[in-house]
């Protein structure tokens, strides 16, 4: 009975890992098909372009970069976009908002649309949240500039957003904005999720690490590739996770001809599946590891002691900040 329970538990874990990997692969594949990489900008209709630009540059400290317009709009465009036919030309200004998506400001001349800001529960109501490491300092500064806040900073006590502090404020023309801060992370991150939400603080940290880091030497890269082989041969989960943290970047992307796995958890699930399918197989390299600047190439074989080259292939690595950030897997096939 004890062995049966162990087998059921092992099967359940394998199924869970497969489902998790399948869901992640499906999401990534959908993103590949659309070609979407992320958010480029957020657009805001403003009543006074000069006022809006001054707020985003002089008060928030952003940079206005590009301008376009005024551009006349034809009747068909106005009809398709549910606009008043008497509204005039539109002008644009693109603002670089620190680390993250840009903000596109647009102003219509002789605007005949509604000047009423949507209420919090109105369909289409939205806001932009700006990240800060010190929310109290940011609030004090903005208040000194006359910015109106809709309450005081609130710290989330539990749940997925535990550790996050936020507060709303409004622009001079009435649009709702938000300050948010979680310098020590959010509650959900403690559960080691497969996907971590993007954050400006992480992007800034990566930029700093990249600027401070020294290029890896050829021997250092070869050592990391050897560590990669050790990861795929390691049967102990904790030891494998420890190796991964040294060799792979947190958001490493492994690209196979049939799927894409992102992060340690998804790759771990795939390695577990391989080891359960072939418990006596082992990876080893066929010839010397090749290195070209921050790129390395590993020719490998996988099989049992009786047939070590049952499957052969090649892994291509891209290294940044001392770790592998990309892993492209090419499989030759079974012999």
UniProtKB/TrEMBL annotation:
GO terms for molecular function: dioxygenase activity; metal ion binding; methylmalonyl-CoA epimerase activity. Residues 1-30 form the signal peptide. GO terms for biological process: L-methylmalonyl-CoA metabolic process. Coiled coil: none annotated. Residues 38-182 form the VOC domain. Keywords: Dioxygenase, Metal-binding, Oxidoreductase, Signal. This is Catechol 2,3-dioxygenase.
């Amino acid at each position: 009975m004890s062995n049966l329970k162990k087998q059921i538990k092992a099967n359940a874990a394998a199924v869970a890992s497969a489902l998790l990997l399948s869901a992640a692969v499906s999401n990534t594949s959908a993103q590949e098909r659309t070609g979407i990489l992320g958010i480029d900008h957020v657009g805001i209709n403003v009543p006074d372009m000069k006022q809006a630009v001054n707020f985003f540059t002089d008060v928030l400290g952003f940079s206005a970069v590009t301008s376009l317009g005024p551009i006349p709009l034809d009747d068909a465009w106005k009809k398709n976009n549910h606009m008043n036919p008497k509204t005039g030309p539109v002008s644009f200004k693109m603002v670089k908002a620190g680390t993250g998506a840009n903000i596109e400001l647009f102003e219509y001349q002789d605007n005949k649309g509604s000047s009423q800001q949507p209420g919090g529960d109105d369909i289409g109501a939205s806001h932009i949240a700006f990240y800060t490491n010190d929310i109290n300092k940011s609030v004090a500064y903005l208040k000194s500039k006359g910015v109106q806040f809709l309450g005081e900073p609130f710290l989330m006590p539990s749940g997925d957003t535990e550790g996050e502090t936020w507060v709303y404020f409004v622009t001079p023309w009435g649009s709702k904005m938000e300050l948010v801060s979680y310098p020590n992370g959010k509650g959900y991150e403690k559960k080691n999720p497969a996907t971590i939400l993007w954050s400006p603080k992480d992007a800034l940290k990566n930029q700093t690490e990249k600027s401070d880091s020294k290029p890896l030497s050829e021997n250092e890269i070869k050592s990391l590739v050897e560590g990669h082989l050790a990861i795929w041969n390691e049967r102990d989960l904790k030891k494998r996770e420890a190796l991964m943290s040294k060799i792979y970047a947190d958001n490493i992307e492994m690209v196979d001809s049939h799927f894409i796995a992102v992060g340690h958890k998804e790759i771990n699930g795939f390695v577990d599946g391989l080891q359960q399918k072939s418990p006596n197989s082992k990876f080893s390299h066929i010839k010397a590891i090749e290195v070209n600047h921050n790129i390395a190439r590993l020719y490998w074989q996988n099989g049992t002691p009786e047939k070590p080259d049952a499957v052969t292939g090649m892994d291509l690595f891209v290294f940044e900040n001392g770790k592998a950030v990309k892993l492209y897997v090419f499989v030759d096939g079974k012999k």
